[in-house]
Amino acid sequence: MAPAELLGLAQNFRNEVRALDVEYRSPRVLVSDLFLKSNATILKPYTQLQHLQSTMGLKFYFVPFSTAGVTIAVLAELEHGLKEPLAERIELSFKNGDTHTPEYLSKVNPNGVVPAIVHDGVPIWESGAITMYLGETFGVDRSLYPAAGVQRGEAMKWIVWSAVNLASHGRNLGAFLRAEKSDGETEAQTEAKKINGEAAKKGIDDGLAILDGALQGKDYLLGDIYSLADTHIWSFMAWLTMMKVDVDKFPNVKAWSERVGSRPALKNAF
Q: What is the pTM of this model?
């Protein structure tokens, strides 16, 4: 096909798009008009209505004062300054067994816990996965989550690390602090509980030391750039403080936590 014919074909396609009277934004990056013309059934025009419908399909399932606080903080950042919330909130109760109903287990989270989101009918659970998904879907355009590349990889590293490290040790410490001596408990069992509790405390301290080192000379985990990775890990700080973890031993973590907590979106997040 001659160059003039190619240009004519591209111009005809542009005219067809204008005739649709919608804002056109290709879901692909750096694709040619000719490619779009030949794949018109796959790459359809993106309209504000389609975006609105996608946003309206987001539901957030939570229990107050639970680990769902991570997602509460993330959504607070993403929704800050918006006229309407991104997600519909659905409050549940552990006491009433809401997270173990057949409907919740089959359609939301088969693990019977929170947080969980459902977006356009697709359930997503685990707080780390939720943060990364919301960041990729809504956070990039709001400069709250890195675009694809090494910085996104670094953000993902910290989000997953917090779930594997801080959260797991925190759960163990919480279980130890809540445990009461039962009738018939042997001295050996009592000692085992104590050992597990001390191990959990050490695990948290070791994790905070890693975080403290990573924040040396930096305002945020990614340097000068605040991201939802900071939001995600910051949400654990109040939980750790309630369990009498001494964060003051880690000056970089303490300064960072105060810096993040002073953000307008997070001042009244909980």
A: 0.76
